[in-house]
Design brief:
CATH architecture: 3-Layer(aba) Sandwich
Number of domains: 1
Strand content: 5-15%
Number of strands: 5
Bound molecules: adenosine-5'-triphosphate, (3R,4S,5R)-3,4,5-trihydroxycyclohex-1-ENE-1-carboxylic acid, magnesium ion
Helix content: 55-70%
Catalytic activity: shikimate + ATP = 3-phosphoshikimate + ADP + H(+)
Strand order of the largest sheet: 2-3-1-4-5
Pathway: Metabolic intermediate biosynthesis; chorismate biosynthesis; chorismate from D-erythrose 4-phosphate and phosphoenolpyruvate: step 5/7
CATH superfamily: P-loop containing nucleotide triphosphate hydrolases
Pfam family, one: SKI
Distance between the termini: 31 Å
Enzyme class: transferase
Structural class: alpha/beta
Shape: globular
Subcellular location: Cytoplasm
Largest sheet: 5 strands, parallel
Number of helices: 8
Length: about 190
């Protein structure tokens, strides 16, 4: 494990973004451990406070879910995390402009995957209402709409299917740390 004092990400906020099943939650948890940072998952916070995501979609619709999600992101960013925090976002969180504005200035890591990578991970998935039981067609359609947003918002893009979640987290850390060093050096000059 990298010691918290030894790496320049300490105290920073890192947000993980990407499509359903790209590994935001699993990689985020592992990355927080590597960085010695706190971890939050906005989907988990919403479920804890408001109940299962499919029930929120069914009872109140997607926009109501997006309101809760935008608030969850705002709340986590307003908290004090002296050791830094890794935040797993929901797959559609960056569709909201207010969220894009709030996260700008932080590290936003795009976990890039293809359908073929995530298909085995989505087998039997029942907690993703936007897939409507037609996982491949729905996932591909959402990606066609969202890829340009992900590409625009990302400060770092990482291929997220070349190994286990722990290995992907290691790859993210290995790219984030020099990036932050570079940013810190630029700010000093
Ligand atoms: N690199 C990986 N290799 C293999 N399996 C993985 C990898 N990353 C995540 N998984 C598995 O894929 C599934 C989905 O991962 P995870 O829940 O982390 O994705 P997510 O991006 O948070 O999805 P969602 O948008 O629905 O929140 C989980 O069962 C997880 O264990
Ligand atoms: O991609 C999406 O729009 C979603 C992804 C999940 O993380 C959840 O936030 C929810 O199921 C919606
Ligand atoms: Mg997740």
């Amino acid at each position: 494990m990298t010691s918290a004092a030894a790496h320049p990400i300490v105290g920073r906020t890192v947000l993980l973004m990407g499509p359903m099943a790209s590994g935001k939650s699993s990689v985020g948890f592992a990355l927080a451990r590597i960085l010695g940072a706190d971890f939050a998952d906005t989907d988990v916070r919403i479920v804890r406070e408001h109940g299962p995501i499919p029930e929120i979609f069914a009872a109140h619709g997607e926009e109501a879910f997006r309101d809760l999600e935008a608030q969850a992101v705002a709340d986590v960013l307003a908290e004090e995390h002296p050791n830094g925090i890794v935040v797993a976002l929901g797959g559609g969180a960056v569709l909201r402009r207010e969220t894009r504005e709030r996260i700008s200035g932080h590290h936003v890591v795009y976990l890039e995957v293809a359908w073929e990578d995530v298909a085995p991970r989505l087998v039997g998935s029942e907690d993703r209402p936007l897939l409507h039981g037609q996982a491949e067609a729905s996932w591909r359609e959402l990606m066609a709409q969202r890829r340009p947003v992900y590409e625009t918002v990302a400060t770092l893009k990482v291929h997220a299917a070349g190994g286990t979640a722990d290995e992907v987290a290691r790859a993210v850390a290995d790219q984030l740390i020099p990036l932050q060093k570079e940013l810190t050096r630029e700010r000093r000059h």
